[in-house]
Specification:
This protein is mostly helical. It has helices at 3-32, 39-53, 60-76, 86-95, 102-117, 124-133, 137-144, 151-164, 174-177, 180-183, 219-270; strands spanning 188-194, 200-207.
Length: 271
């Protein structure tokens, strides 16, 4: 084996070890921190950024790295496009397991690509700052998807819908009455249980603006509810638009048929 081959083998071996170390970190993160913190996720994406930014595709070592990733992804049964990029292979290899959400992984690929193309990111450490600055993984993913509102945009639209919408019911609780001064005008979520009579037993109140130090902020839950309001109305509007389009198509076909029939009658009369 030549000296060049030895160097390439050493480079690729180090690369494999680093990638598999991140895989182990990912597994630990999902088992222990996934539901409570994104720090570890952003750090891992930062490490993947470092590996990807070092990839030039102009060396034999880079060729061997790509071939190894492609082979490993194939062994895992990972769905790939015809010509996957190095970043796609790297992210999918690290994050894909049998129960992994493919949409979530696609979001990581988009975020990594956005970081690679951003002048604000120059090192692995900058990736966490970049992701947080632009609102998190889902915000960045949605902002890059054509015609897609980001979660915050959906929540903002949902807020307008809720504030302008018809009041379904007015509920008075001793809990909310105590905090009118601090929370008036903000959005609250009433957590209740639907009983057999069709009424709701309110069990808990979540506040967008916390009225006291004893309360926890529920901004994420409120934004999710507002996004739901936007999505529900948007779905209803699309359904109406689809129905109108179908009715117009039928109407146009009927008009065309009548026009053809009329032309035929005129031809017969002329004959």
């Amino acid at each position: 084996m030549t000296q060049t081959q030895n160097i390439n083998t050493s480079i690729v071996k180090d690369f494999k070890n680093r990638v598999n170390t991140i895989c182990t970190q990912r597994n630990t993160w999902e088992q222990t921190q996934f539901k409570s913190a994104n720090d570890a996720l952003y750090a891992m994406l930062g490490e993947l950024y470092a590996l990807t930014s070092q990839f030039t595709n102009n060396t034999k070592a880079d060729e061997l790295k790509y071939d190894w990733l492609l082979s490993e992804c194939t062994k895992k049964g990972i769905t790939l496009c015809k010509k996957p990029t190095f970043a796609q292979l790297l992210v999918k290899y690290v994050f894909t397991d049998n129960d992994t959400d493919s949409r979530r992984i696609s979001s990581y690929v988009r975020v990594l690509n956005a970081a690679l193309q951003s002048s604000e990111v120059k090192s692995a450490a900058d990736v966490s700052v970049f992701i947080r600055k632009y609102g998190g993984v889902e915000e960045i993913r949605a902002s890059l998807a054509k015609g897609t509102k980001t979660p915050l945009q959906r929540a903002a639209s949902g807020r307008e819908i809720v504030l302008k919408g018809k009041t379904v019911a007015t509920v008075s609780t001793s809990e909310t009455a105590k905090h009118v001064a601090a929370a008036k005008g903000s959005v609250v979520l009433l957590v209740g249980v639907l009983n057999a009579k069709g009424t709701v037993d309110v069990k808990h109140v979540c506040y967008e603006l916390v009225p006291t130090d004893n309360h926890l902020s529920a901004k994420s839950a409120v934004n999710a509810a507002l996004s739901n309001a936007y999505a529900t109305l948007n779905k209803a509007m699309k359904k109406v638009a689809k129905k109108k389009a179908a009715e117009k198509e039928i109407d146009d076909k009927n008009k065309q048929a009548l026009s053809i029939s009329s032309d035929n009658e005129q031809v017969k009369a002329a004959a």
